[in-house]
From TrEMBL, chain A:
Provenance organism: Streptomyces camponoticapitis
Residues of the NADH:quinone oxidoreductase/Mrp antiporter transmembrane domain: 122-396
Regions crossing the membrane: 30-50, 71-92, 104-128, 167-186, 192-210, 231-249, 261-282, 289-311, 317-340, 352-371, 391-409, 441-461, 481-502, 604-622
Protein name, as recorded: NADH:quinone oxidoreductase/Mrp antiporter transmembrane domain-containing protein
Keyword list, A-Z: Membrane, Transmembrane, Transmembrane helix
Gene3D superfamilies per the UniProt record, alphabetical: 1.20.5.2700
Domain of life: Bacteria
UniProtKB/TrEMBL annotation, chain B:
Organism expressing this protein natively: Streptomyces camponoticapitis
Keyword Membrane: yes
UniProt membrane topology term: Multi-pass membrane protein
Name of the protein in question: NADH-quinone oxidoreductase subunit N
Record lineage: Bacteria, Bacillati, Actinomycetota, Actinomycetes, Kitasatosporales
Short name of one Pfam family: Proton_antipo_M
Length: 623, 501
C-alpha cells in the first residue's frame, strides 16, 4: 500500500508550493483549496496509519530516500495532519481580502508537508532535507508581515538559531558514513562504530535540542511569536518544536547505545521544563507565556526520550499538540477580536467571548496538569520513565509540573477575571481588533479542545498497553497509583494557591523576575558571544582582504610597473646610451679620419714622411 | 557532433559579421537566442544518447600539430557533459535576458557567441593545448565584455585587473602542461594518453612542482583564497550578463581543471598534497562567507559567496585524494558532490547575478542600504530573489543542498576538522543572504534617490523567464537528482579510482 505514502507528502508540499506562488487575484479561493488539501492529507494520514506503507527510492550512491509509517510515525502523521487541518480551518476566517493569503496558506501546507516527511523519513538525508525545508518555511511564516519592523529580524533569529543547531545533523550524516552506516538508515545509526557513534549522537542531540527550543536555544521561540497566531498554533504544537522531540523519540536506540547520551538528554529536558516554566510564569504577554510553556512542555518529551520512555514521550507529544494548538487558536481569536495579547488587557476576555473562553479554560486546565485531563496522565507516564532513571530527574520533573500549573492558571486567572471598567483602553496594542470572532473559529477550536481533554485515555491501562505495543515499547515503566495521586495533588494544591498569589507580587527576588521575564537573557548572550564576534571577524577580514591580500596584488602590479620604469631608465640611460656613445664615437672617429684628406700633395708627402719615420722608429725599437 | 555543438555559435558569429550592418538590433538578438536554443537542443540530444560506460563518449580525434604532440581531441564524460549542458543553458538564459540590450548590439552578440564556443570547447577538450587555448580565449572575450559593457571607467580598470591576473595564472598552467609533456614518453599533450601513462608516477619533487604550477593556474581561475581578489571588482563592474557567465561558466573552468587534469594526471602528488588542497578549500569556504557577510554592496556580496561555494568544490576534491580513514564510497560521494556543486552554483549564482542586473537597472546602485522594503514595489522580483537566495544558501529542495550534502558527508571521514570548519560556512551564508534580503526587500518601503521618478517596474518577461528557468532546473535537481547523478557518479567513481592508483 505504498500508493498512500507519496500522495501523503506530495499533496501538501505540491499544493502548498503552487498556492504560495499564486497571483493575488486568485486569492479568494485559496483558503478553501488549502483547507481541502489539509483535509485530504488527514484522510491519507489515517489511511497510512492503518496500512503502514513503506517506499524507497535511490537518492545518493548507496543511500536511499526512504519513507515508512511504523507505530510512532502512524501516531505522528495523524497528529500532524489533524492539527494542520484544524489550524487551517481556523485560519480561513483570519485573513482579510487585502492580505496575501496565497503565501500564507501555501507556506503553511509546505511547512506541515515537510513535517510529514520528517516523521516518516527512514534515512538521514531525507530527514535532513525535510528538517531544513521546515526551518525555511518557518522563516517565511514568522516573517509573514514583513512590512512591519522587527518581523523579518525575528524570522532571521529563528531560522539562524535552528540552522546553527542543524549543523549537528550534517556532522551526524558524515559521521554515520565514516562509522560504517553507508546507507544512513535511521534504524542503523546505533550500530555505528566508535568513536563515530559518539559524534553521531552529539550531532543528532544538538539538532534536536535546537529545533525543540530546548536550553540553550529556547530564545528563538520567543521571537517566533512575531508570526501570525495560526503559525504559532502549528509551529508550537505538532510541527517544528515537535520535530526535535520526535527525532529523539525515534532515535532512542541511538541514545541508549552510549552511556552518556540518555542521561544528558534527560537532564536537558528536565532543566528546560523547569527553567522555561519559570520563564513562562514571569511573562506578561499571553503568547510569550504560551511560547515559554511550549519549551517547558517539550522538555518533558525530551526528558522522556532521554529516560527511554518512548510511549510516555509520545503520549505527551500528542496531548500537548492538541492542547497547545487550541490555546494558541484561542489567543489568536482574542488577538483578532481585541487587538491585544497582553495579559493585563485581556482581563475578562473569556467572559466577553464565552465560547473561546470555555475552550481556553479547558486548554489551560489541561496544560496545568489537572486530573483527569490529558497532560496530567501523560506527564505521569513521562515521570515514571524519569523515576526509573533516577530520583533527581523525577523530583525536577515534578517541580516542573508544579510550575506548569502555576503558569497555566496564571493565564487562566487573567482572562476569567470580571471585566474591568473601560476594558477597551487596553485593546488594540498590536493591531485593530474587529471585536468579534470569525465564523470559522468555533469548530476547530472545540475539536482541538475536546482532543486535549480526552487524549489522557492513552495513559489508561488498556489504551496505554495498546500504544506500547504500537510503538514497540513494551517494557517501559508505567506510573504507580501513588504517582498519579502525587502529581494530581501537586497540581491541585498549586491550583488552589494561584488565585491567591496572582494578585500579589511574586515571592522571589527582583533579579529572578527580570531574568525570567527576559527569557534568561539567552538571546542577548547569544548575540554577545556568537553574533557580535562573528560580525567583527567578518568586518576585520573584509578589511584584511582589501588592504592585505588585494594590497599585495596591487603592490605586485605596482612592483611590475616600477620594474618596467627601471628597465626603461636602464634601457635609455644604459644600453641605449652605450649604443649612442658607440655611434657618436664612430662619428667623431670618422670626422677625425676625414681631416687628413686635404687634397694637397705636399701635405700627403709630409704625412707619408712622418709615417715612414714612425715606422722606422718602431722597427728600430723592436729589433 | 561535439564539434558542431562547439562551433555552431562561432559559425553564426562569422555569418553575422558578414551580414550588412543595416540589420536591426533585434534581429541580432533573436538570431543569438535561436542559436543558443539550437545548441542547447543539440546538447539535450547528446545527453539522451549518452551512455555512462568507461572513457569519453562522442570522441573526435584529428591531427593538428603532430610534431609537438598536439591534436584536436574532444569528447565528453560524466564530468564534462553536465558542464557542457550548464554552459548552453546559461548562454540561452543570458541571450533571453539580453533581448532588451541596446548598446552596440552587433559586437555584443558576436562576443557572446564567440565566448560560448570557447566555453563549450574547453569542457569537451581532451588535449592540454586545446584546453589552454580555450582557457586563454575565454579571458580575452570576457575582458571585452567587462570593459565594453560594464559600469564605466571602473569597469575598464576591473577588466584590466581581471585579464592580467587570470592571464598570469594561465601562464603557470601552461608551465605545468609543458612539464607533463616533457615527462611523457612519447611526448604528448593528449589528456587521455597522459591519464593512461601517468608519466609523473614516482617523480617526487618534479611532480610536486608540476602540480604546483597547474594548481596555482587553476586556483586563480576558480578562484580560491588567496588568489581571489580579481573576482569582486570584475563582478561588481561587469554587466549582469557578463557576471552570470563569469560566475556560472568561467569559474568552473578552474574547478573542472582539477577533476579533468590535476587529479587524474598527477594522482601521486595529488594524494601527497591533499591536505594542502583541503585546507585551501576549507579556508575559502569560511573566509569567502565571512568577507561576504561584511559587504554592503549586493553584487560584491554575491561575488564573495562564489569564493565560498567554489571552496566546497576544492575541499571535496582534496578529500577525494585522502585515502586514509575512508573508503571508495565516501571519496566518490565527495567527487560527485563537487561536480554537482559546479552545476548547482552555475544555475543559482547565474540567476542571482541576472537578478542583481535587475536591481541595478531599477535603482542604478548595488548599495544595499539605499533600498528598503523593495518587495512592496516589486513583489515578483522579491519573490524570485528570495527563492534564489534560499537556493544559494543550500536549502534542501534545490541543487545546492544535493551538492553540499554529498561534499560534506563524503569529506568528513577523512578530513574531519577541515570539514567541520567548512560546515560553519552553511550558517554564515544563511546569515548573509537573510540579512541582504531583509535590508533590500523587507521592512518599511524606501527607494534610493537615484531611482528615476514614476515608480519602479516589477520583473519583465525577459528578466523573469531566464531566472525562473535556471531556478526551476536547480529545483528539479534538488527534488529528483538521479538523472544528473546517474551521469556524474560513474565518472566520479572512475576518477576516485584513478586518484587512488
Amino acid at each position: 500500500m505504498s500508493a498512500v505514502l507519496w500522495p501523503l507528502v506530495a499533496l501538501p508540499l505540491g499544493v502548498g508550493a503552487v498556492l504560495a506562488v499564486t497571483e493575488p487575484r486568485y486569492d479568494r479561493r485559496i483558503p478553501a483549496v488549502a483547507a481541502t488539501a489539509a483535509l485530504a492529507t488527514l484522510g491519507l494520514a489515517i489511511a497510512a496509519a492503518v496500512t503502514r506503507p513503506a517506499v524507497s527510492v535511490p537518492l545518493f550512491a548507496g543511500m536511499d530516500a526512504g519513507l515508512a509509517v511504523d507505530g510512532l510515525s502512524a501516531v505522528m502523521v495523524v497528529t500532524v495532519a489533524a492539527v494542520t487541518t484544524a489550524v487551517l480551518a481556523f485560519a480561513v476566517g483570519e485573513f482579510g481580502p487585502d492580505e496575501d493569503r496565497g503565501r500564507f496558506f501555501g507556506l503553511m501546507l509546505v511547512f506541515s508537508g515537510a513535517m510529514l516527511v520528517t516523521v516518516t523519513a527512514t534515512t538521514l538525508p531525507l530527514l535532513l532535507m525535510a528538517w531544513e525545508v521546515m526551518g525555511a518555511s518557518s522563516w517565511a511564516l514568522i516573517g509573514y508581515g514583513w512590512r512591519r519592523p522587527g518581523k523579518a529580524a525575528a524570522a532571521d533569529v529563528a531560522f539562524l538559531t535552528t540552522r546553527t543547531a542543524d549543523l549537528g545533523m550534517y556532522v551526524a550524516a558524515g559521521a554515520a558514513l565514516a562509522g560504517g552506516v553507508a546507507t544512513l538508515r535511521l534504524d542503523r545509526l546505533a550500530q555505528a562504530t566508535s568513536p563515530w557513534l559518539h559524534v553521531i549522537t552529539v550531532g543528532i542531540v544538538l539538532a534536536a535540542l535546537g529545533k525543540s527550543a530546548q536550553l540553550p536555544f529556547s530564545f528563538w521561540l520567543s521571537r517566533a511569536m512575531e508570526g501570525p497566531s495560526p503559525v504559532s498554533a502549528l509551529l508550537h504544537s505538532a510541527t517544528m518544536v515537535a520535530a526535535g522531540a520526535y527525532l529523539l523519540l525515534r532515535l532512542e536506540p541511538l541514545l541508549a547505545a552510549t552511556a552518556w547520551a540518555g542521561p544528558l538528554v534527560a537532564w536537558f529536558g528536565a532543566v528546560t521544563a523547569l527553567a522555561l516554566g519559570v520563564v513562562a510564569v514571569a511573562q506578561t504577554d499571553l503568547k510569550q507565556l504560551l511560547a515559554a510553556s511550549t519549551s517547558a512542555q517539550i522538555g518533558f518529551i525530551v526528558l522522556a526520550a532521554g529516560s527511554h520512555g518512548v510511549a510516555g514521550g509520545t503520549t505527551q507529544l500528542v496531548a500537548h499538540a492538541a492542547t497547545k494548538s487550541g490555546l494558541f487558536l484561542a489567543a489568536g481569536a482574542w488577538l483578532t477580536a481585541l487587538g491585544t495579547k497582553r495579559l493585563g488587557a485581556l482581563r475578562g476576555a473569556a467572559r466577553t467571548y464565552p465560547l473561546v473562553g470555555g475552550a481556553f479554560t479547558v486548554g489551560a486546565l489541561t496544560l496545568a496538569g489537572l486530573p483527569p485531563l490529558s497532560l496530567w496522565a501523560a506527564k505521569d507516564e513521562v515521570l515514571a520513565a524519569a523515576r526509573a532513571e533516577g530520583t533527581g530527574l523525577y523530583v525536577v520533573g515534578l517541580a516542573a509540573a508544579a510550575v506548569a500549573a502555576v503558569y497555566s492558571l496564571k493565564a487562566l486567572w487573567y482572562v476569567t477575571r470580571p471585566l474591568p471598567p473601560g476594558p477597551a483602553s487596553g485593546y488594540d496594542t498590536e493591531r485593530r481588533g474587529i471585536r468579534r470572532t470569525a465564523r470559522t473559529t468555533p469548530l476547530p477550536l472545540l475539536a482541538l479542545t475536546f482532543a486535549a481533554a480526552v487524549l489522557g485515555v492513552l495513559a489508561l491501562p488498556g489504551p496505554a498497553s495498546w500504544l506500547r505495543s504500537l510503538l514497540g515499547a513494551g517494557g517501559e515503566p508505567s506510573p504507580e497509583a501513588w504517582e498519579f495521586a502525587l502529581s494530581a495533588g501537586v497540581a491541585l494544591a498549586v491550583a488552589g494557591l494561584v488565585p491567591w498569589w496572582a494578585s500579589r507580587p511574586a515571592p522571589v527576588p527582583r533579579t529572578v523576575v527580570r531574568w525570567a521575564r527576559n527569557w534568561l537573557f539567552l538571546e542577548r548572550t547569544a548575540r554577545l558571544t556568537v553574533v557580535r564576534p562573528v560580525l567583527a571577524l567578518a568586518r576585520a577580514l573584509a578589511v584584511f582582504d582589501d588592504r592585505v591580500i588585494d594590497g599585495a596584488v596591487r603592490q605586485t602590479a605596482r612592483g611590475g610597473l616600477a620594474a618596467a620604469r627601471l628597465a626603461r631608465r636602464l634601457d635609455d640611460g644604459g644600453v641605449d646610451a652605450a649604443v649612442r656613445a658607440v655611434a657618436s664615437g664612430a662619428r667623431s672617429l670618422g670626422r677625425a679620419a676625414r681631416r687628413p684628406q686635404t687634397g694637397l700633395l705636399h701635405q700627403y708627402y709630409a704625412q707619408a714622411a712622418a709615417g715612414f719615420a714612425v715606422l722606422v722608429l718602431i722597427i728600430l725599437s723592436v729589433r | 557532433m561535439l564539434s558542431v555543438v562547439t562551433f555552431l555559435p562561432l559559425l553564426v558569429c562569422a555569418v553575422l559579421l558578414l551580414l550588412p550592418r543595416t540589420l536591426p538590433d533585434r534581429a541580432y538578438l533573436w538570431i543569438w537566442t535561436g542559436t543558443a536554443a539550437a545548441d542547447l537542443a543539440l546538447v539535450v540530444a547528446l545527453w539522451a544518447g549518452f551512455d555512462t560506460g568507461e572513457g569519453p563518449r562522442y570522441e573526435e580525434r584529428v591531427r593538428w600539430i603532430p610534431s609537438a604532440g598536439v591534436g584536436y581531441h574532444v569528447g565528453v564524460d560524466g564530468l564534462s557533459l553536465p558542464l557542457v549542458a550548464l554552459t548552453c543553458l546559461l548562454f540561452l538564459a543570458v541571450a533571453v535576458f539580453s533581448l532588451r540590450e541596446r548598446r552596440r548590439v552587433r559586437a555584443y552578440v558576436c562576443l557572446f557567441l564567440f565566448l560560448q564556443t570557447v566555453c563549450v570547447g574547453l569542457f569537451v577538450a581532451l588535449d592540454l593545448i586545446l584546453f589552454f587555448v580555450y582557457f586563454d580565449l575565454s579571458i580575452v572575450a570576457m575582458f571585452f565584455v567587462i570593459a565594453g559593457w560594464g559600469h564605466g571607467e571602473r569597469a575598464r580598470a576591473a577588466a584590466l585587473k581581471f585579464f592580467l591576473y587570470t592571464f598570469t595564472g594561465s601562464l603557470a598552467l601552461l608551465l605545468g602542461f609543458i612539464g607533463l609533456y616533457l615527462a611523457a614518453d612519447p611526448h604528448t599533450f593528449d589528456i587521455v594518453d597522459l591519464t593512461r601513462a601517468n608519466p609523473l608516477a614516482g617523480r617526487g619533487t618534479y611532480a610536486g612542482l608540476v602540480l604546483l604550477a597547474i594548481g596555482v593556474g587553476l586556483a586563480v581561475k576558480t578562484p580560491t583564497v588567496p588568489f581571489h581578489t580579481w573576482l569582486p571588482p570584475a563582478h561588481t563592474d561587469a554587466p549582469a550578463t557578463g557576471s552570470a557567465i563569469l560566475a556560472g561558466v568561467l569559474l568552473k573552468m578552474g574547478t573542472y581543471g582539477f577533476v579533468r587534469i590535476a587529479m587524474p594526471l598527477l594522482p601521486g602528488s595529488w594524494r601527497h598534497y591533499a591536505l594542502v588542497i583541503v585546507v585551501v578549500g576549507a579556508v575559502s569556504v569560511v573566509y569567502g562567507a565571512l568577507v561576504a557577510l561584511a559587504q554592503t554592496d549586493f553584487k560584491r556580496m554575491i561575488a564573495y559567496t562564489s569564493v565560498n561555494h567554489m571552496g566546497y568544490v576544492v575541499l571535496a576534491v582534496g578529500a577525494a585524494g585522502t585515502l586514509a580513514g575512508t573508503d571508495a564510497q565516501a571519496r566518490s560521494l565527495a567527487v560527485t558532490g563537487a561536480v554537482t556543486q559546479m552545476v548547482s552554483h552555475g544555475l543559482i549564482t547565474g540567476a542571482l547575478f541576472l537578478l542583481t542586473g535587475v536591481l541595478y537597472d531599477r535603482g542604478r546602485t548595488y548599495a544595499m542600504d539605499a533600498y528598503s522594503g523593495l518587495a512592496a514595489h516589486t513583489p515578483r522580483f522579491a519573490a524570485v530573489t528570495a527563492v534564489a537566495a534560499f537556493a544559494a544558501l543550500g536549502i534542501p529542495g534545490f541543487s545546492g543542498f544535493i551538492a553540499e550534502f554529498q561534499i560534506l558527508t563524503g569529506s568528513l571521514a577523512s578530513q574531519t576538522i577541515a570539514t567541520a570548519v567548512a560546515l560553519t560556512g552553511i550558517v554564515i551564508t544563511a546569515a548573509l543572504f537573510l540579512t541582504a534580503l531583509r535590508r533590500v526587500f523587507l521592512g518599511t518601503p524606501r527607494l534610493p534617490d537615484t531611482m528615476p521618478a514614476g515608480g519602479v517596474a516589477d520583473l519583465r518577461g525577459t528578466e523573469a523567464w531566464p531566472t525562473v528557468i535556471l531556478l526551476a532546473v536547480a529545483l528539479v535537481i534538488g527534488v529528483a537528482p538521479r538523472w544528473l547523478l546517474d551521469v556524474i557518479e560513474p565518472a566520479g567513481r572512475a576518477l576516485t579510482g584513478l586518484v587512488a592508483r
